[in-house]
TrEMBL record:
Keywords: Calcium, Calcium channel, Calcium transport, Cell membrane, Cell projection, Coiled coil, Disulfide bond, Glycoprotein, Ion channel, Ion transport, Membrane, Metal-binding, Transmembrane, Transmembrane helix, Transport
Name used for this protein in its record: Polycystin 2 like 1, transient receptor potential cation channel
Polycystin domain boundaries: 164-358
GO molecular function: calcium channel activity; calcium ion binding; calcium-activated potassium channel activity; muscle alpha-actinin binding; sodium channel activity
Length: 681
């Protein structure tokens, strides 16, 4: 058996042998191949599952200094990890919530990159889940639903040609209300006058169920709420000021009896403020609910018209109603507003909110439930992560804009979760009351408003979530250019912003004072931009505004110069460990492990090719031990095929061992070939 120690030429190439020699004491050394001194005793893996036996030259790159967002906190990090160095909970926390801020990655660039990549992978899963949730709440049919309702209630003309948008007087309002409004609200028959057979329910466009009954509400101001100049006191006895909640009229008028003639507070109506074109109006006032049929509603409106429901004090009229389309599971909450300014005339405006208030019906909706559960788990995960980071870094945690962004995303997500629960409960309650009393007004305005804000908040949160990706890819030199450029030029941009807004507000005030009485775009301060009507001043104003592009060019110049500086500095810096380096390193380790594994199998195969009919364990052990194999590995390999347990491998047992080793070798050859073909360039 000793002759097996004198191997033929090594299966390793000279290049690989050289590489192994340079790897130092952690490399595996086989005395059977060279005259090297005995290695330091360490466990060598089995011939089937060897452990990593070396580190490639790329391992040394782990010693490159990694950028640390908290350089002054290294001692704090060390103390923290010393306290948490033992225990199952500590292991769990380090494993699940190990980040670049909870691990000491200052002196280990490889650890920094690996930890960042792990964070990135987890975060991408979270981002995908968040995208599914956000887009799952929207529908491509939302726009078309809003459009058909707009065409019906805003653009449809009356017999006299009055549309909602063209309302200019109180008379126009009544023409619209008793014409296009009633025609649009009540659909009880087909185009051939055949009944829809839906009972008293109206199905607008044959598809959209009118929920409950519509409501008409007005707000008035008191007489004598303003002061008439003494020169006109004899001719003008009444004075109704512009709308102000403090000057709101709350006295009964007209027919006295009935909700249309008696004032109701915002609390009684469970209403909310409305931001109109001229003022912000309260949720109270005088209201009249219409009926379930067109004929009854026409009578109600005629009664209001004949008894002068609208008068000098009227400042705003609201028409509210809601529809539901079961085909697409969407609510359309409509508010038509006509404001009557103190100047006379009328200013119409409208809000049509198409929202999804009932969440779980289709298979896709139930899939979204799963995504919501995953989202909640992620939020809990990130809450724990931020708490751990905050414990370590205390108030210095908030020095990083990325950490602040983390907190913002988590807070918005928590608000979204709470609102989701609130909306579900509230909608169920509203629909329950509506089913019990179908003739009541269905007030979905409050829910529709907050659902819209909820959607907007989710859109902003998703935007922030995408921006946060830069946090995890900033270790890459190319990706660092953007964040470094913005950070470096922040001071210059702040100075420029102050200068820009001084000029901007100066022009806004100038435009308001010059053209506010003639041009709608300058009628209020916040509209004062991009318009010119006055023959002389307008020309001067327009020419001076043209200097604004020069300010924009200054802004771009600041960023461009800073970017050039950052790019030049990064080009002169030494390359740190990059993702490609980790891929190459992983490839090298895998490739070398495969080669070494094949060598281990070759050792055993050489022993088996001795030709002995019976191979004793003693000879098997001594030969393989001289080749560098550990005792327990030799015993495990031998006992696996020593079926009778007599410490001797007979011919049959040797053949079985040879066959399995050959299969292992073939499999390793295929793995090696695959690794070679997929070698990174």
């Amino acid at each position: 058996m000793q002759k097996l120690n004198n191997r033929a030429e090594s299966h390793l190439s000279s290049q690989v042998e050289c590489e192994l020699e340079n790897l130092g004491k952690r490399a595996w050394v086989n005395q059977a191949y060279c005259g090297t001194p005995p290695p330091v005793h360490r466990s060598i893996s089995t011939v089937y599952n060897p452990q990593p036996l070396f580190h490639s030259q790329l391992d040394s790159m782990g010693k490159v200094s990694a950028p640390n967002p908290y350089p002054a906190e290294n001692s704090v990090m060390n103390q923290y990890h010393e306290k948490k160095s033992s225990g199952c909970c500590s292991f769990l926390l380090r494993g699940l919530w190990g980040t670049t801020l909870t691990k000491d990655t200052t002196e280990n660039r490889e650890l920094f990159v690996r930890t960042t990549l792990r964070e990135l992978v987890v975060y991408i899963v979270f981002l995908v889940d968040m995208c599914l949730l956000t887009y799952g709440m929207t529908s491509s049919t939302t726009y078309y639903y809003t459009k058909v309702m707009t065409d019906l209630f805003v653009n449809a003309p009356s017999d006299s040609g009055v549309t909602f948008q063209s309302i200019g007087t109180m008379d126009d309002f009544w023409s619209y209300a008793q014409g296009p409004l009633l025609d649009g609200l009540y659909w009880t028959s087909w185009y051939n006058n055949q009944s829809l057979q839906t009972g008293t329910h109206s199905f607008i466009y044959y598809e959209n169920m009118l929920l409950g009954v519509p409501r008409v509400r007005q707000l008035k101001v008191k007489n004598k709420s303003c002061k008439v100049h003494k020169d006109f006191e004899e001719e003008i006895s009444d004075c109704f000021d512009v709308y102000n909640e403090k000057k709101e009229d709350d006295s009964s008028f007209g027919l006295i009896n009935g909700t249309a003639w008696q004032y109701h507070t915002e609390k009684e109506l469970k209403g909310s403020n409305h931001w109109g074109m001229l003022a912000t109006y309260s949720g109270g006032g005088y209201y009249q609910d219409l009926a379930l049929t067109k004929e009854e509603s026409a009578g109600v409106l005629a009664n209001l018209n004949n008894n002068l429901w609208l008068d000098h004090g009227t400042r705003a009229v609201f028409i509210d109603f809601s529809t539901y389309n079961a085909n697409i599971n969407l609510f359309c909450v409509i508010r038509l507003v006509v404001e009557f300014p103190a100047t006379g005339g009328a200013i119409p405006s409208y809000q049509i909110r198409t929202v999804k208030l009932i969440r779980y019906i289709t298979t896709w909706d139930y899939f979204i439930i799963g995504c919501e559960i995953v989202f909640c788990v992620f939020i809990l995960y990130y809450i724990v992560e931020e708490i751990l980071e905050l414990r370590i870094h205390k108030l210095s945690y908030f020095k990083s804009i990325w950490n602040i962004l983390d907190v913002v995303i988590i807070m918005l997500a928590i608000v979204a979760i709470v609102f989701n629960v609130f909306r579900t409960i509230k909608v169920d309650k509203l629909l329950g009351n509506l089913l019990k009393e179908p003739s009541i007004y269905a007030d979905f305005e409050f829910l529709a408003f907050w659902q819209t804000q909820y959607n907007n908040m989710n859109a902003v949160n998703l935007f922030f979530a995408w921006i946060k990706i830069f946090k995890y890819i900033s270790f890459n030199k190319t990706m660092t250019q953007l964040s470094s450029t913005l950070a470096r030029c922040a001071t210059d941009i702040l100075g420029f912003a102050i200068m820009f807004f001084i000029v901007f507000f100066a022009y806004a005030q100038l435009g308001y004072l010059l053209f506010g009485t003639e041009v709608e775009s300058f009628s209020t301060f916040h509209k004062c931009i991009d318009c010119r009507k006055h023959r002389y001043c307008g020309f001067i104003y327009f020419c001076s505004v043209e200097t604004n592009p020069k300010l924009s060019n200054m802004f771009l110049a600041i960023i461009n110069d800073t970017y050039s500086e950052v790019k030049e500095e990064l080009a002169s810096q030494k390359d740190d460990l990059q993702i490609t380096d980790l891929i190459k390193q992983s490839y090298s380790k895998t490739f070398m492990k495969l080669k070494l594994k094949k060598e281990k199998i070759s050792d055993v195969q050489k022993v088996l090719r001795s030709g002995s009919k019976e191979l004793e364990f003693k000879d098997f052990r001594e030969t393989l031990k001289e080749m560098g194999h550990a005792d327990h590995e030799i015993s495990a390999a031998f006992s696996k095929f020593d079926y009778d347990g007599n410490q001797i491998l007979d011919k049959e047992e040797q053949e079985t061992m040879k066959q399995e080793l050959e299969e292992k070798r073939d499999a390793l050859t295929m793995h090696t070939l695959h690794a070679t073909l997929t070698k990174p360039i």
